[in-house]
């Protein structure tokens, strides 16, 4: 029981850390696209990304595999969502739409982070 609680707590902390890092990266992308990023900010950004990337991959290989009930070892959670968005209708596609609509697309300065198929659901709606 204790191991299960620690595992659950670790997974929640992993998800929170990765999402905070994703929002930070999207903020950097916005700043870069709108006038540039000062060198001192870059000195914080690049080490943060170096720390974040392994956790991002770990999230996809653990939580992603559990959520989608599949073994997918692509490094990016976004790749998994894009694949399901382009795939047949079903619960995995709805799950991908949920993650893209609520956690990925709203924070991308472009407005759409996931590759929604043409004629498919757009998160801006």
Task: Explain how this protein is built.
With 125 residues, the protein is mostly helical. The protein has one domain (2-107). The protein is built from four helices and no strands. It has helices at 2-33, 39-68, 77-86, 91-104. The protein is flat and about 45 Å long. It starts with a helix and ends in a 21-residue tail after the last helix. The mean pLDDT is 92.
Q: What share of the residues lie within helices?
A: 55-70%
Number of domain units = 1
Number of helices: 4
Rg is 16 Å
Average pLDDT across residues?
92
Report the sheet with the most strands, covering strand number, pairing sense and barrel closure: none
Give the DSSP E fraction (strand runs of 2 or more residues): under 5%
Query: What distance separates the N and C termini?
Result: 42 Å
Number of strands: 0
Low-confidence stretches: none
Shape: flat
Structural category:
mainly alpha
Compressed to H and E, one letter per element, the order equals HHHH
């Amino acid at each position: 029981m204790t191991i299960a609680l620690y595992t659950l707590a670790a997974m929640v902390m992993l998800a929170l850390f990765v999402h905070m890092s994703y929002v930070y990266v999207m903020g950097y992308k916005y700043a870069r696209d709108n006038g540039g990023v000062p060198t001192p900010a870059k000195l914080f950004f690049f080490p943060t990304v170096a720390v974040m990337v392994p956790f991002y991959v770990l999230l996809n290989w653990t939580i992603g595999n559990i959520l989608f009930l599949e073994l997918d070892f692509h490094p990016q959670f976004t790749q998994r969502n894009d694949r399901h968005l382009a795939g047949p209708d079903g619960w995995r596609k709805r799950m991908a739409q949920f993650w893209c609509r609520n956690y990925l697309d709203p924070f991308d300065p472009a407005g759409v982070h996931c590759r929604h198929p043409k004629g498919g659901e757009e998160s801006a709606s």
